[in-house]
Amino acid sequence: MSVVEPALSETQLAAFREQLVDGEIDHDGLAAEYDADEDTYHIETPDQQTTVSADELGRVAAEQAAYITNWYFYTQQVGTEIKQAFCQWLELADERPVPDRYVALESGVDREWGQLIITTTVSPDGTRHYDVRHVDDSDAAADALTTHTDPFDARDIGTVDADGRYRPLRTAPSLKQGWIFPDLTAAEVYEAVEAFYPATIVNWYREGRDELDIDHWRDEQDRQSGIYNLITVLPDEAVDWAAAACCDDSQCLKRREWQLSEDEPLDADGGDGVFPCRGPCSMVVAAGREWAKLERQKTQTYEFELTPSEKEQLEAVIDAVADDEIDEIREADVGDGANRYRVRYLREKRVDEDGNLSGTPTHPEDVHDGEDEDHGDSDG
Amino acid sequence: MQSLVIVAHGSHLNPDSATPTHTHADTIRATGAFDEVRTGFWKEEPSLREVLRTARGDEIYVVPLFISEGYFTERVIPRELRLEGWDPELWESDGISADTATLVASDIGTEVHYCGPVGTHEAMTDVLIRRGESVTGDPSVGDGFGFAVVGHGTERNENSAKAIEYHTERIRETGRFDEVKALYMDEEPEVDDVTEHFESDDIIVVPLFIADGFHTQEDIPEDMGLTDDYRKGYDVPAEVDGHRIWYGGAVGTEELTADVILERAADAGADIGDAVARIRQQTKPTTGAAGD
Asked: What are A33's strand-pairing partners?
């Protein structure tokens, strides 16, 4: 196997010396200090301890050179702690020491972040390079994908899905394929991921330090004003339905950490995403407002004439819409309850000219409640 | 390290709503006046609730890309950003004079400079005029032209009309156009009757809105009679009742709006060097375009 031979540049050595004049270095397996009296440098890495003169610094053994290039990259090139933590996560830094990491980075280390696959590689001077693409394009030839170099292009790529439909929720699992950022720097990969999935890195970072602040549903209710005040009347059980409807992994790649309140967990599955969701998003709040309106209606008993297969067909239609499977139903597959011909047939047979199922009016003459929300009873 | 954070409304339904915010952020980013430029939204991501934690600066300037002072700038944004001790009185504004207030944002534990909205800054007048130039393709447009600034009206927010009147008066004071008037969607004088309010044959109409959407792309063009169905589009200029209407759409999409964002941050103490001059130069419409 070929291994990256670390090469220390004059710039790196100068930075190393400069840092040691200010104080010791203790970074990711590298410990180093400068002895001013002797004018020597003491360098410790897991398998080697050396004391060298300034002249000899450029000729340290490969292992130590690797640690120094790694120190230089992370402390001098990557920038903030959050970016460092993210780049270290990208290369599985916790799992292996620097020399082994460099071996792995030679062929590339893959990590998934939502629907992104990010491949990290390393140059002999320790500089990392990042290839970002859609996870379903991981095996595609780079020249078969549209190349991007500006990380802010990610914003436009993520605005619409493959069918050109607007994606108001950036973390919905509907990112389109067909693009590649073949060679981003550490600063750029951070910006690209931030543009695809805003604020996910910082929230992941906070969570890793046990500092993630969760806004639970009741906190969200208490904070609302204006038209969103209405969510205060959404029944508690409806919050669970809302979370199951909106926050499931099939709808959003964030891992929902918010509950009804800190002491009142929701039953709905929070998902398995890498990055956490720390509070109901504006989509959930807007949907919650709509459901709060609808939940103010009282139930009513209706009588419908349906055959058993027609009842099952209505259930199939609900499933097909809820699971976004309409496009997968074949044109002539009239055996599928949600097939367009089947549904049109049902409409012809069971829905009258006023749009009423089985000819049953939604608001029978002798019942007045229901639609007018101003007079509806509140559950909250 | 200086950070600029532009906060805007955004939309769950209209992908164009955030476009001006992103475009102006890109323009400002390219000047290098700030170490970073972040954007946050009420309806999109990152949310107002989380945008400050994406910023790393020691000095953070928050500029609302909103037209007027009101519910969002005085209540929603400060609440979502968690500005400790916020009170609209800190702006000491008469409804159009909000400048800046410096408060600790508890989300990040550091001070941020919370600026007044873009729409009430005096430099917005220049953007309205610039839109007049770009929509006519004439950098010296003025003689023989009327200019209408269009707003919602007072139905939802009293300060909204104040901002319209403020800029209308400032454009009028330049003496550049034959007539300058404020028109409204919800109240008199209504934009529907635009031709009744002007004697000039040519009328530039620019809504003081941040982004194009339902009002600026559908309501106003149909109400003015530029088209009977917005989906068919309309001509610029369009002939209505013997007048030529040069309809500019939302002023916030004009590139020069980036300049107003910068001015807001500079007023709050940001060091932006010569970025304003560069943006003014860079965003000038090329002469000899349409209309010649």
From this structure: A42
